[in-house]
Amino acid sequence: MEEELKCPVCGSFYREPIILPCSHNLCQACARNILVQTPDSESPQSRRASGSAVSDYDYLDLDKMSLYSEADSGYGSYGGFASAPTTPCQKSPNGVRVFPPAAPPPPAALAPPPPPRNACLTCPQCHRSLVLDERGLRGFPRNRLLEGVIDRYQQGRAAALRCQLCEKAPKEAAVMCEQCDVFYCDPCRLRCHPPRGPLAKHRLVPPAQGRVSRRLSPRKISTCTDHELENHSMYCVQCKSPVCYQCLEEGKHSSHEVKALGAMWKLHKSQLSQALNGLSDRAKEAKEFLVQLRNMVQQIQVRSAQAEKLPLPSRMSHPLDQISHCTVKLRQTTGLMEYCLEVIKENDPSGFLQISDALIRRVHLTEDQWGKGTLTPRMTTDFDLNLDNAPLLQSIHQLDFVQMKVPAPPILQLEECCTHNNSATLSWKQPPLSTVQVEGYILELDDGNGGQFREVYVGKETMCTVDGLHFNSTYSARVKAFNKSGVSPYSKTLVLQTSEVAWFSFDPASAHADIIFSNDNLTVTCNSYDDRVVLGKTGFSKGLHYWELSIDRYDNHPDPAFGVARIDVLKDAMLGKDDKAWAMYVDNNRSWFMHNNSHTNRTEGGITKGATVGVLLDLTRRTLTFSINEDQQGPVAFENLEGLFFPAVSLNRNVQVRPWSGSLEQGVTFPAGGRGGLAVTLPLCGLLIFFSSVRAGIKCWGNAVFMFRRRCLLILIYVTVSQAVSSG
């Protein structure tokens, strides 16, 4: 944005900027330096009075005062016309030629009487020549709003205050004169501001205090250029400038459309904001385009290096030039956007409306400049290379080819293949007498329901463990080998049965660091007063699953949460705060269901030490239900559940829990005597009988196995009788 705040003549921040009719700005002192005098007969007004056709941007011979120089890319303003002798000039930091004061005129006795002259000014940016009236530079409005933006920008810079009079490397300022409003270092103060004469009465303050006084000094509100004592109150739509009441009374805008200043201020602010939105989109596209160009350059460099370090192609200069051009253009666009945002912050309606129309046009013009193929690469990453293939052909003719055969089918090693919970490990080898080289193997499994095979592993290893299978499911596995000649036939198909009984414990790898584990990861608590999340090691994606958790410690009435979650759930907040968990949180009196930080179904009844919390995940019906001490807690908590879920708990240091039960794939769960989660397959009918009998009889692991077998037999008899009655 700094480029927007610097004068095109002196290259420094604007001081007392004025607005030219072409909407560009100049320091008042710089405008005074580039003024030239022209005879009345050569003024644009006299030319128009004589009937010469001119345009607003081409003022006849006055354009000779703004001549483009190919040698220095600057603009020269001459003290006369083509017939007048040229005047030596100096060049400003941005290339605009600034002329010293004219030489003193010859004595009156020798020189003819001078013709009447007009003051002319040529804009250094658009080269439009302007003739000043009798008011001179006072006829141009002061850009108070730009002064405010510059003040804020300078105050916001963290750099130390520097002397404003040092010519080369400005030193750090030592004092500031409140009357002169200038920062001085010690040598410049002694040289330019001696403590004697009229300057002795000036008040010198430290630089920091001077910056504060600058910030606190109120900025003047823009006033009418024709009536300096009048504030702007209306806006002329035709003239596109604010006007005062006295201008309206004098009839200068009698036939023009005039609107309220405040309404036009809001309208132009809205239009400028909308224009900035479009320009912002173009700037984002330009940033992405620059990334694309840089990637293209890297690809070209890599390809050139791979092609035996050949020199870069001549077309390489195209993307580099385009990168340089787009970078400069993007910096200018970003500066314009930042400047417009600062302008929108100003609360001076008249000052804003003095420049808003030109700013809106400039934003639209900048946005248009990004179109029409500007963001299209001028070349591709592909380029032609002429390679000498004679040595390669000679080497090919000297090759002695050996025929390679397709590998034999691998042999699955049954003694090393096994299943654990919902994972399966398979091992295979090549036939003992096979001498054909093998490059890799492809392992395939079906979906557990007799469906199509799909690849689960491709590589050189001869052993693979597949995780995330369904419980109580039968999978078929086969493997084949491959090399450059082709793919071998499949091995014999191996049938694998995943566990009917699913054990699970809490997972230290995915838990929050504050979680404390004990009892072989079956008991968890926390060392923080904040809620922390821990997950079970086993995930479920189908079937009916039920587990219970015992509250071993419950102090100070906290509210732990129980439920299920995705593997990437938040670990440093209560379970259910995000959309990756479905939970019930409960205190000593009541409970709530929570998902995505939405609390529902407040239910009376809480927990104490020794209580058990049950979680029933029915992925057949896609529901989740909770219970406390064997009694269902509230209605069905959540519905339409689908995907992979892990048992989950959130607690703080006042709570300690351990699992009592496990999970059933297509069945239900019973207490396992503190040995973690246990899953058994049973028909779903007879479910209530199974629940009541199991919870009543099992007290230890030895009894658990015995009682479980008895109740399974009873349930099978009950199911058989029920089916016979229904069919009869």
UniProtKB/TrEMBL annotation:
Residues 406-501 form the Fibronectin type-III domain. Residues 344-402 form the COS domain. GO terms for molecular function: zinc ion binding. SMART domains: BBC (SM00502), BBOX (SM00336), FN3 (SM00060), RING (SM00184), SPRY (SM00449). Residues 7-47 form the RING-type domain. The keyword Ligase does not apply. The keyword Transmembrane helix does not apply. GO terms for cellular component: cytoplasm; cytoskeleton. It holds the Pfam family SPRY. Residues 483-664 form the B30.2/SPRY domain. SUPFAM superfamilies: B-box zinc-binding domain, Concanavalin A-like lectins/glucanases, Fibronectin type III, RING/U-box. It comes from the Eukaryota. InterPro entries: B30.2/SPRY, B30.2/SPRY_sf, Bbox_C, ConA-like_dom_sf, COS_domain, E3_ligase_FN3/SPRY, FN3_dom, FN3_sf. It is found in: Cytoplasm, Cytoskeleton. Residues 158-207, 219-261 form the B box-type domain. Keywords: Coiled coil, Cytoplasm, Cytoskeleton, Metal-binding, Repeat, Ubl conjugation pathway, Zinc, Zinc-finger. This is Tripartite motif containing 9. It comes from Cyanoderma ruficeps (rufous-capped babbler).
